[in-house]
């Protein structure tokens, strides 16, 4: 199944808002770290419901916030959640960004990068469109060290790339992005039941759930354009 077919189906079933609710726990911390200044142009790769663009416009006074998503239904839903004319949603593949070279101040992506058929091409594109000193805050929950994520590729019919932290850093550098920082943002909001309630439908042990959310959380790699 293509990425757009898979996520059109998710959007039609309202799962875009469900993802927003779950991802917001850690995404909001990543968004708050972005050095966005008033008037900046920001771009969200794989924007889903579009919460990142809305948040950067509202909280950091971004001048223009764009989201790009392969799924027309996701982009349509995202458009319906805002009436801000400076927040726009494009349909397209983030391996081919429809922006001129050196025109974007900061890029963000949450739980989308690893769906790229060629992740290196995405990084090349990000490095091309970013202005000097611009950043790419790339956040993923599906990554090698997070052993609890390894079976997720069985849940979707789209190929996924599972890199480790060092592989992210190496790929960023290969694309010409300096790695400013890489760390894990824990999800402190998801409710973890008491030990007596395990196993649950999703978790064998409480320890495993604690490790997944409170320790591994979201892997964030921040690249800076030279
Ligand atoms: C798991 S959702 C995450 C959405 C949102 N970032 C969030 O945090 O809730 C992944 C999104 O990335 C989009 N996507 C995946 N591969 C893509 C690609 N190559 N180009 C553009 N969008 C893509 C999907 O259509 C989907 O909306």
Characterization of the model:
Keywords: Methyltransferase, Transferase. Strand 4, helix 5 (119-129) and strand 5 (130-140) form a beta-alpha-beta unit. The protein has helices at 3-12, 15-33, 51-60, 72-80, 119-129, 165-174, 206-216, and strands at 41-45, 64-69, 87-91, 104-110, 130-140, 178-185, 218-224. Strands 3-2-1-4-5-7-6 form a 7-stranded mixed β-sheet, sandwiched between helices. By secondary structure, it is α/β, with parallel strands linked by helices. The mean pLDDT is 97. The radius of gyration is 17 Å and the shape is globular. It has a single domain (3-224), classed as Rossmann fold (3-Layer(aba) Sandwich).
Name the features.
single chain, 226 residues, Rossmann fold, 7 helices, globular, binds S-adenosylmethionine
Write the SSE topology.
Elements: H1 3-12, H2 15-33, E1 41-45, H3 51-60, E2 64-69, H4 72-80, E3 87-91, E4 104-110, H5 119-129, E5 130-140, H6 165-174, E6 178-185, H7 206-216, E7 218-224
Parallel strand pairs: 1-2, 1-4, 2-3, 4-5
Antiparallel strand pairs: 5-7, 6-7
The chain binds S-adenosylmethionine.
Give a quick summary of the entry.
This is Methyltransferase domain-containing protein. By secondary structure, this protein is of the alpha/beta class.
